[in-house]
Amino acid sequence: MLQRPSHDEYASFYTGYIGLVPDGDYVSILNSQEKALVTLFSQLTEEQALSRYAPGKWSLKEVLAHISDTERIMSYRLLRIARGDTTDLPGFDQDIFIANTTFDEVDLVDLIKDFQAVRQATLALLPTITESAWTRRGTANTFAISARAIAYVIAGHAQHHLHVVEKNYL
């Protein structure tokens, strides 16, 4: 079972995400979360998926795509750090990612499939990481972070956005 990272394994701005991950079997948590997100977004119509809870906020389609994009990037960081790469991995600007796409024109079913593919790729990566590799540390966006902290950020980030959707959009 993947152990929760200690506070010295990540930058303080990740505390909120990591705190959203419940105790328990990490893989089961990711699987349950995938099911919850797919169920929630599958119930939306195309029109509902274009809704924004305030001017300038992302549409529901953009939120789902953002979850997928972020998980892709974090899984890549997880892979590199777990494999011992000490290169400072670059950051990314989530707003530029959204501004330079047309997710609102993509069918919702395709965005859901994309999220599922990304999540399944993350789940496929996990068994390839050795027990000792989980505590390896690297640098991402100039901040030190462990492999297991990144894994918890993946789950916590998706959970954060699930809460935002439930609170602000539905």
TrEMBL record:
Residues 33-164 form the DinB-like domain. It holds the Pfam family DinB_2. This is DinB-like domain-containing protein. It comes from Paenibacillus qinlingensis.
